[in-house]
Amino acid sequence: MGAQLIQVDWAVVLIMLPLSAAMLGFLLPGMARNIGLLAALLILFTVVGLGWQLTQTGVYSHVAGGWLAPLGIQLHADGFSLLMLATSAIVGVAVSIYSTGYFKAADDQRFWPTWLLLWAALNALFLAADVFNLYVTLELLGLSAVTLASLTGSKDSVSAAMRYLLSTLLGSLAFLLGIGLLYHQYGSVDIAILSERVNDSTVSWAALGLITAGLALKTALFPFHFWLPPAHASAPAPVSALLSALVVKASFYILLRLWLGLFDFQQDSTVANMLGILGATAVLWGSIQALRQIRLKMLVAYSTVAQIGYLFLAFPLAQTGGNRVWYAVAYLMLSHALAKAAMFLVAGNMMLFGGHDRIVNLDRVVQRLPVTVAAFGLAGVSIMGLPPSGGFIAKWLLLEAALAQGHWGIAGIMMLGGILAAAYVFKVLGYAFIPSPVPHQAVSVPARMQWMALLLATLAIMAGFVAQPLMQLIGIGALFDSTGSMP
Amino acid sequence: MIWNNWIPLLVVLSSLLPGLVIFTLSEKQWRVRTFLNIFGAVAKLGLVGWMLWGVYHEQHFETRLALLPDLDLVLRAGPLALFFVSLSTLLWLVTTVYAIGYLEHSPHRSRFFGFFSLCVTATVGVALAGNLITFLLFYELLTLSTYPLIVHRGTEEARKAGQSYLTYTILGGALLLFGTVWLYSLVGTLEFTPRGFLSQVDAQHHPTLIIIFVLLIGGLGVKAALIPFNGWLPKAMVAPAPVSALLHAVAVVKAGAFGIIRVVYDVFGIDFAASLGVTAPLAWLAAATIIYGSLRALFQDDLKRRLAYSTISQVSYIALGVAIAGPLASIGGVVHLVHQGVMKITLFFCAGNLAETLGVHKISEMNGVGRRMPWTMAAFTIGAFGMIGAPPVAGFISKWYIGLGALEVDQGWVLLVLAGSSLLNAAYFLPILHAAWFRKPPEKWPHEHDFGRHETSLALLIPPLITASLALLAGVLAMLPFSPLEWAKLISVREFYTP
Amino acid sequence: MSMLFFYALIGVGLFTLGLLALVVQPHLLQKILALNVMGSGVFLLLVALGGRSQPVVDVVPQAMVITGIVVAVSATAMALTLMLNLSRSSPGAQLPEDQSADS
Fold it and tell me: Is residue A483 part of a domain?
């Protein structure tokens, strides 16, 4: 039995399953919800299968249909892919269950096929072994994300989606141009082959610039973050959770993978330092903006801008900090995905409950939606980087690297970012305790919507206790270890 | 014994698990809630008693779990850790009984007791932490779990108090985190070691170590309410009385003071810290805080606020005793951790009783309360005498040892501080006692409740009587084994100084 | 080779021109067209670079371009739908902040 299970191409299933479920849901709109839920659970199961396979046999690689790159599709899974697949699966299942309470039947048939398509794009992206497939999946992801963002059809959400679409297309074009240059110069799109061939040349630098800029735009790195807050804040809550937790991580995933595999030729740290400076600005700008917001969803969206900044702080640190820094980044991606998804689900609950999300008028939700507020608090702990939480582990490792290398500026920014995060999280919590001058009418919130938020938040906390085994899993394939040794 | 490896963890879980279950209970299930509360507290007390006996006979209790690739979560029961654990466990039991009585008819009790249990879990974790990162973890957990208690009443005033509390403690936590990570990147270990682990560090890093010391003490000083970080404490008085008792005597303030002891003795080592020249400024800061707190207390009419400023003053005795850097003074400082706790919790219980039974909140309303509530005021009187430092109450022992210790290392100025502060203490406590016992009671109390046969409900009356007796016994029986004083001497021999 | 280089240069030119229009032009239709011009620039560049001095033309860039065109078509369709949707709810097909800047 075990021997047969290990032969299964779990990775192929991971792409085909959501894709075919999306088609089915499109064809049978009445059953879209049930099909989607079933697919979600099966995907979770499949990711477990893939994870088990990776622990047994190491890095997985598969050539679909026997066609080799550049024309064929090659799949590749290591620990980092597994981390992202698992994060998507966990967040995906929770959001799927949540959305059965959030969407009415009429919205179901639009939400489910698109969401499953997005999931297929995510999985394919995390499994892609060549840069061209990365481009294709990135586009698929972008288009389905924009569709989801415009789901409500309100004026705000459509104009936000429009801006999102223009930005994401621009980013993709820059990315495409970059990989075109790489192919021209080095004659391959396979990451593994490219990583051997790419060297310090003008074309490499041009490709580096185009790809980094394109992906930074899609990841909403300051100052390219302008599209993110309106898009994430005006989308329906489950969609916001998916966009903030997973979609922006996908483009960062590509950036990190290419940075480690292809762009390690550059010895001087100018680009890395520039990314670090932008990241630092993002941390401060995003946090301050979050603090100034009067609406909960905007606050959470700006918090995403800030947290993305932390991811980019790693680039200058990794110059000499080695793999520890990248492990910290991977951990931050995981814990931010869990915590931020939880926060958006919470925002959705509060919006449903009171009909608005103005922070000062939350009106004693702490007593009336205790589970939801608990979820916000726990997710907040991880976002602030307080122990015990996944966010703490990541920020500890980053801070340690910053101090060990004497990067005082980065260390200071990280501390300041944490304090500002505490300020905006507790701003919300404080108003959750007191009655509002204008009491609002309460609509009951289904229990599963509350518990899914709490589940994700709890997982973000629990991530603080399993750092060691998780990092071993992430380390399969030793993607990060090429840059230095794990002490 | 294999069991010994798990007992520290069990001690932490014995309040964590009941707390988590309590969150899920509805308001009406008060029997289950009370059972869980009391069961957890008693179980914890039993485990702590077992460890006390074991540590006295030189057994080791240590739980170690992996947290980061090369940093562990360590819970270790050394003599000093147990000293603090015993205090918080015992006072938790008493405070739980009191809180059950105090909050009998108020809303949201499940939430209150849930966070109450989390708060004690964090305190016990702070006490048992075997390295600085574990300490940090529980220290932050303490910040987070006390916040909902402070804003429990859900008024705008409570929200503001909570915000002020967080502003201070989050900043303090940030300083502490910064110092901790810096220390780790410098020396590569954070394990608490008797007599410190930094004395071998290369001399070129000594200036860095001084900065780290300032960061750590700054971070801890926020909770320990040292000057200038004590603005939050009086504001936090809006919380219900059991919370104030917990904040002042058992958990928050004590965690800060305990952390200072840890950093000075088990991270830097007292001799090394003294050679760096960082203990003297700490002593001055503590002395200044003692005088400042007493002076401010003098001008408060609100009883709880006066007690709050008194706490600021009294907790700094701990830091003072620690920073004088003499064996006897350390004993005085450490033993005050327990003595102050027992005495201050008595005073807060009594203040809570007055507010709950008679609606009396201000000192100017306290005329003649001694006749209406003799038992409560008797307990209050014992606590107040202890604070002043009158023998035979426990407070006298602490001051005596701190004074002797100061003379031992030629720091005569400390005696002036002690004398001045005792005078001030007398100046702000004796008028209260005089008014309560010798003035005529008013015709009508502001907001009187009738509790039948006794002066107030028994759940409110018994806890302060117990803690008052403990304060008295700790002073009278100071020379018996297992008394706080004798245990403090044991700590001093085993952990602080090379014999 | 020089011819190919010329094509590549035109490709870069189109890309730049499109980028400029994307940023400067307020009307959404113009923005969408600008993106398409940029896309054409990229495709031109890819095809031009693919025609290297080999006896056989490299097919991979052409495959890339075909895929790219498919993506561009669907993205354009989607953008137009959003634009129509937007112009129905408010006069003029512009993004909110551009409107406020104009008026």
Answer: yes
- Biggest alpha carbon–alpha carbon distance for chain C: 58
Contact A434 B155 (CB under 8 A): yes
Question: Span B267-289, mean pLDDT?
Answer: 92
Return the domain boundaries, chain C.
2-96
Mean pLDDT for the stretch of residues A140-167: 91
Q: Is C93 on the interface with A (CB under 8 A)?
A: no
- Identify the residue among C82, C90, C97 best suited for mutation to test binding to A, counting A beta carbons within 10 A and taking the highest: C82
Q: Is A265 on the interface with B (CB under 8 A)?
A: no
Tell me whether C4 touches chain A (CB under 8 Å). no
> How high is the pLDDT of residue C100?
45
Q: How far is CA B57 from CA A71, A220, B11, C63, in A?
A: 74, 61, 19, 79
Three-class secondary structure of residue B64 per DSSP: strand
CB pairs under 8 A between A and B: 91
Compare CB distances from A155 to C31, C52, C89 and report the shortest one's residue: C89
A242 touches chain B (CB under 8 A): no
Mean pLDDT confidence for B51-76:
87
| Containing structural domain, residue A475 | 333-487
d(CA A411, CA A280): 10
Of B108, B140, B174, the CB nearest to A367: B108
Q: How far is CA A468 from the centre of its chain?
A: 22
Which of helix, strand or coil describes residue B231?
coil
- Taking the Cβ of residue A370 and every Cβ of chain B, the question of whether any pair is shorter than 8 Å is answered with yes
> B302 forms bridges with which residues in the sheet?
B362
How many C-beta atoms lie closer than 10 Å to residue B203's C-beta? 7
Tell me the two tokens of residue A257.
């993978």
Model confidence pLDDT, tens digit, residues A105-149: 888 888 999 999 999 999 999 999 888 889 999 999 999 999 999
The minimum CA-CA distance between B67 and chain A, rounded to whole Å, is 6
ipTM of the complex: 0.91
Residue A475 lies in a domain: yes
CB B178 within 8 A of CB A415: yes
Could you tell me if B343 and B496 are in contact, meaning their C-beta atoms sit under 8 angstroms apart? no
pLDDT in tens, B417-468: 999 999 999 999 999 999 999 988 888 888 887 777 778 888 889 999 999 9
CB contact B176 to A (< 8 Å): no
CB A424 within 8 A of CB A291: yes
Indicate the residue type of B486: E
Q: Please give the C-alpha separations between residue B457 and each of B241, B343, B373, C8, C71, in angstroms, as whole numbers.
A: 15, 21, 11, 90, 77
Contact list, A181 vs chain C (CB under 8 Å): 49
| Terminal Cα distance for chain C, rounded | 50
Is the model more confident about B1 or about B184?
B184
The predicted-structure confidence for A85-96, as pLDDT tens digits, reads as follows: 999 999 999 999
Residue B158 in contact with partner chain A when CB distance is under 8 A: yes
pLDDT per residue as tens digits for the range A172-230: 999 999 988 888 888 888 888 888 888 888 888 999 999 999 999 999 998 899 999 99
For residue A406, the Cα-to-chain-centroid distance in whole angstroms is: 30
- For residue C94, list its beta bridge partners: C27
- Name the residue among A184, A137, A130 with its Cα closest to residue C67: A137
Name the residue ranges covered by the structural domains of chain B. 1-277, 290-499
| Cβ within 8 Å, pair C64-A163 | no
Fold of C2-96: Helix Hairpins (1.10.287)
Distance (Å) from the alpha carbon of C9 to chain A's nearest alpha carbon: 13
